[in-house]
Amino acid sequence: MKPRPGLSRLATIIETPIRWIGALCGLCTVAVVVLTFGLVVLRYAFDTGSIATQELVLHLNAAAFLLGGAYALVRDAHVRVDILQQRWSPRTQRNAELAGLALLLLPFCAVLFWVSLDYVAASWSLREGSRESGGLPGLYLVKSLIPAAAVLLALAGLARALRLLASEPQAPVAGSSQADAALSHGGGA
Fold first, then answer.
1. Residue 179 within a domain
2. Which letter does DSSP use for residue 86 in this model?
3. What is the pTM of this model?
4. Whole-angstrom distance, CA of residue 123 vs CA of residue 120
5. What angle do CA 65, 68, 69 make, to 5 degrees?
6. 130-136 long-range Cβ contacts below 8 angstroms, 24+ apart
7. DSSP category for residue 85
8. What is the CA radius of gyration of the chain?
9. So what's the pLDDT on residue 189?
10. What was the pLDDT predicted at 148?
């Protein structure tokens, strides 16, 4: 199979907005840390707190978690169980990953999207907000991130599949543990 640069270009087009969203998720995470620190200082130094700020921390954390999954997949930084895969040839690894994307990830994203629609629609119909006095309005906006996350994760999976299809898997060097170690660390033998 020859490399297919058209598929790589399409993957890059799909990945670009996901990378921007990933950067925003990083900012959300920094904000969560700063706000949590501020809440702890307020609580223990001044014996006060803020329900709105506590909820903002939860909302930012939800955004980072839900939208960050697609970014992790695009960067190939997701958790992977390599117990069997490390023994497979690069071609078999690629085929197994393509099968996992097609048979596990994309159906999961479709189900998550479908199941979340009624939940989000009900929240929007109520213009759902916090149940706490002094809490934040707009909880329906946070809940809208669930189907958005499903779409982004599916797009990230599609981009990953395109990248896998666009590249030629490396042929393994039989009996060479140095070659295996170099391949697993991204270097050459």
1. no
2. G
3. 0.81
4. 5
5. 95
6. 130/51, 130/55, 132/51, 132/55, 133/51, 134/50, 134/51, 134/52, 135/51, 135/52, 135/55, 136/52, 136/55, 136/56, 136/59
7. G
8. 21
9. 36
10. 97
User: At 12, which amino acid appears?
Assistant: T
For residue 150, give its domain range: 5-78+89-169
Contact 31, 62 (CB under 8 A): no
- Which backbone phi and psi does 19 adopt, to 5 degrees? -65, -40
Nearest C-alpha neighbor of 142 from the set 69, 68, 74, 55: 55
- Contact call for residues 113 and 150 (beta carbons, < 8 A): yes
Q: What share of the chain is helix, strand, coil (3-state, %, to 5)?
A: 75, 0, 25
Report phi then psi at 78, rounded to 5.
-80, 160
Q: Is residue 48 part of a domain?
A: yes
> What tokens appear for 63 in the block?
């955004």
Dist. CA 91–CA 99, nearest whole Å: 12
Mean pLDDT by 10 residues, the chain (189 residues): 76 93 95 97 93 95 95 85 79 87 95 97 94 90 97 96 80 41 43
Q: How many folded domains does the chain comprise?
A: 1
Phi, psi angle pair for 155, to nearest 5°: -65, -40
DSSP one-letter code for 170:
P
The reported pLDDT for the residue numbered 172 is 43
Cα 123 from chain centroid (whole Å): 24
185 domain residue, yes or no: no
